[in-house]
User: Fold this.
Amino acid sequence: MPGLIQESPFKTITVKELHPTFGAEVSGVNFNDLSEEQFSEILAAMAKYGFCVLRDTGLDDEAHVRFSERFGELDNIRRYLVGGRKPRYDHYELFDAGNIDNDTGGILDPKSPRAHSNRGNGLFHADSSFNPRRASFSLLRACELPPPGNGGNTEFADSRTAFDELPNDLKNELLSHDYVGANSMTHSRKLGSPEFFEGVDPTQSPMQRHRIAQLHEPSGRMNLYIGAHMHHIEEDGKEIPNSWELVQRLNQHATQKKYLTTVQWDRPGDLVIWDNRCVLHRAGGGTFEGKYRRDLRRTTVHDDSPTAWGLNARDTVWRGFNSQANPKHLGAVGV
Assistant:
């Protein structure tokens, strides 16, 4: 049951379940001298629970990156640094998941192009499904938070249990067909702010393809690899009939209330780790927008599983900004 302290199978960490089927708060991690035994238990907790919350870690940017490297090769922001754009941090491995204006250091204007593109983060998604090589883990750390009660929480959906509980007809359809999701960041940006990106056509942008029904190898369970980046569904290289209806049906099924739980950020130093191969997540809005600073920084680990590259060529050019961008969209990410 959620909230119970689990006595086993962990020896070096303490685990408190957050939801009946997934999610846990982990304590007892020694970040100053993390042993292989303890790191193995963190990986085991991730395989079981899909996401883990670690409170008051004391990590700075350097330690955040070094800890993340224990999980595998890290993605970086270099492909986004075009047109004179500068990084906010000394480490290219850190992605800016906050609301700080890069130019002024102040609070991002909610009407700015970047804020419009960030609205896509408020839809359930898996990080990097729009990339040729998808992500395994994401590690998101709070550096500065709004006052309590102003929103900005992070919500998670259990896409493994959602697969388990698919209606029989739909589960049989997925298992008997080789369905592939065509994913695009442009698509999710437009879904998040359709009026602002009205003239943007996701079909004119590159799409990366990953299978929908996948085995999550660390747990041995099947997973729905879906979310807001999925533009349409293909089989044998062609879009299937009624593709968008199936996209919507799968996403609506996986984000039912019974599959959801919310993580509240309590204090700077809190860290949430999730496995994009078995959970979906979204950024929660709130009254903090345009009013209070919310500085969150994320590292993203490249997947190294056999399905990491999906159906994509390993020499595919990774893109940060789309050639459709016009002056109105200057500063937006993914269009």
In short: The longest strand covers residues 135-144.
